[in-house]
Write a structure and sequence with these properties.
Number of helices: 7
CATH topology: Rossmann fold
Structural class: alpha/beta
Number of domains: 1
Number of strands: 9
Order of helices and strands: EHEEEHEEHEHEHHEH
CATH superfamily: P-loop containing nucleotide triphosphate hydrolases
Strand content: 15-25%
Largest sheet: 5 strands, parallel
């Protein structure tokens, strides 16, 4: 039996730069494996099924839950998001460092199942900067944007539950800080 891998929980509000930061980490370290979530939301332009998310129907999502194939799931806005169990356990058994991009409720559930998981919260420099980033992204209407900012405030309040908080003011500095933590 080889060395058991490490599980990293990676959370932060929508628009904080989690995906960009993750992409930097994955390119810097070959042993990092990003877990791909399942979601019922519509695929955005430029997103690739099986790379960014597995885009599935609400019925498929329900079936996976009933069969115990989902580690955790949550409703975010009008859509469901979840973490498929099989690939995570497979990668951990192969000794990989598995990074789950996950919202705060899911992170709390997984931390109970995998107590050795390292939880990192990616924090925006300010709520104003976060709102600016979301507006520049241009993927939400005003109502959705306000909902995401409201959710962000709640998520930021839960950041003290995390092992580490990384402020994403500069992508490179945030990536360096994350790499230092992951090297411990």
């Amino acid at each position: 039996m080889g060395k058991q891998g490490k599980l990293i929980l990676f959370s932060g509000p929508s628009g904080v730069g989690k995906d960009t930061l993750l992409d930097i980490l994955i390119t810097k370290r070959a042993e990092f494996q990003k877990s791909i979530s399942i979601t019922t939301r519509e695929q955005r332009i430029g997103e690739i099924d099986g790379v960014d998310y597995f885009f599935i129907t609400p019925d498929e999502f329900e079936t996976m839950i009933e069969c115990g194939e989902v580690l955790e799931f949550a409703k975010y806005g009008k859509n469901l998001y979840g973490t498929p169990k099989k690939p995570v356990d497979k990668w951990l058994s192969e000794g990989k460092t598995v990074i789950l991009k996950i919202e705060v409720q899911g992170a709390a559930k997984i931390k109970k199942m995998y107590p050795n998981a390292v939880a990192m919260f990616i924090m925006p420099p300010s709520l104003e900067v976060l709102e600016q980033r979301l507006r520049q992204r241009g993927t939400e209407n005003e109502e959705d944007l306000m909902r995401r900012l409201s959710i962000a405030r709640t998520e930021i309040e839960r950041s003290q539950d995390y092992d580490y908080i990384i402020v994403n003011d500069s992508l490179e500095a945030a990536a360096d800080e994350a790499l230092k933590i992951l090297s411990m």
